Amino acid sequence: MLWKKLQKPDNPAKREEMKDEIQREGGLEKHDVLAMVLSALLVLVPVSLAVLLLITFLASLPVWLG
User: Which of 6, 28, 45, 59 satisfies CB 3.0 to 4.6 Å to 32 for a cystine?
Assistant: First the structure.
């Protein structure tokens, strides 16, 4: 329920205005989407790996200490 309150209502006029602004400035270049996906992976994968390693370490503590 809290998530619904935090979401902003959709504004189609503003969405179209932003899309037009991107097109006026030259649009997306050829490899922009690939660069955005790779940068997201470079941010998310190490953090996810660290969390997984922490969970694995905590779960294996009884084996090492017991």
Answer: 28
